[in-house]
What we know:
Elements: H1 3-9, E1 13-17, E2 21-26, E3 30-36, E4 39-42, E5 48-51, H2 53-56, E6 66-69, E7 72-73, E8 76-77, H3 80-95, E9 103-108, H4 114-126, E10 131-136, H5 137-144, E11 155-160, E12 165-171, E13 174-181, H6 185-200, E14 202-203, H7 206-216, E15 227-234, E16 240-246, H8 247-253, H9 255-271, H10 274-283, E17 285-288, H11 297-305, E18 309-311, H12 318-328, E19 337-338
Parallel strand pairs: 1-9, 9-10, 11-17, 17-18
Antiparallel strand pairs: 1-2, 2-3, 4-5, 4-6, 7-8, 10-19, 11-12, 12-13, 14-15, 15-16
Amino acid sequence: MGKSQWSIFSSDIAIDLGTANTLVYVKGQGIVIREPSVVSISRRDKKVIAIGADARAMMGKTHDEIEVIRPMRDGVIDDDEVAELMIRTFIRRVQNHRLMRPRIIVCVPSGVTKSEMRVIRDSAEYAGAREVHLIAEPMAAALGVKLPVMDPVGSMIVDIGGGTTEIAIISLGGIVTNHSIRIGGDEMDESIAQFIRRNYNLLIGERMAEWIKCTIGSAMPLNEEISLTAKGRDLVTGMPKAVEISSEEIREALSEPLSQIVAAVREALEKSPPELSADIRDRGILITGGGGLLKRLDQRLREETNLPANLADDPSTCVVRGTGMVLEDIEAHEDLLLTHN
């Protein structure tokens, strides 16, 4: 049976099951789903009301009968029942009545525990996979940006996602040193919400905090500082209230999570073997993941490490693109997959 005939029965899938967003790559087609990792369910019968962008639009706006859940936390499954529902829905969306259950590759944080790996593997199997493989996120990101991962040369990846920051030095098809910290875009949003609460007595929602980060957040002073209007509820009067917030204030709010990311990068560099340090000195650091889009973050890493640091093209899709490359030829990339034990 030829490959095209085989695809009638099954469509193999790569999933970047992220804390903030889930991306799905279908073999031979590329990225077909890019949705927030959010599910809204009915409290009464536990049925799914919406998934992805539609569910995210309900965040903070629901009544007692509807619960909005983010099943992923810190890059791993936090609510396995809801995660399974989400994965199953996405699989159905891309399967289009194919006869065979798909083979699935899921990427996981490099600091994932064996029990967390088991939960991810089980959820994908229960959701309809016939075979589940796992790959470490930094390795997938490195493949996605076409770094020479199989060569005897050191490549450094800093992958900043919603729930984790993965820092890895890769050589000869393996991760030589890795540092996984459970700090990412979500932590930045939380820091912004706390700062505004503390300084303005204003309670803002998750979506407002994220919008502020994306619009005026930065890792270093901007050439021209900007401001916006933050809206929420006044903690004193309980009334709706709006305040003007500047990019300088948001930079102050982000200083803690950013310092922890920088410290983790420095620690990974200090642990790297001298030969690989020399390679990184020449080749620099590549930043991937949606969190890398924070304004002037690459500049901050350049200044803190004295190394070249560059943001990958389309950083949010690097991990799923790399996982997709493995999916296109699993046999050739078998050594890069995580083992079952």
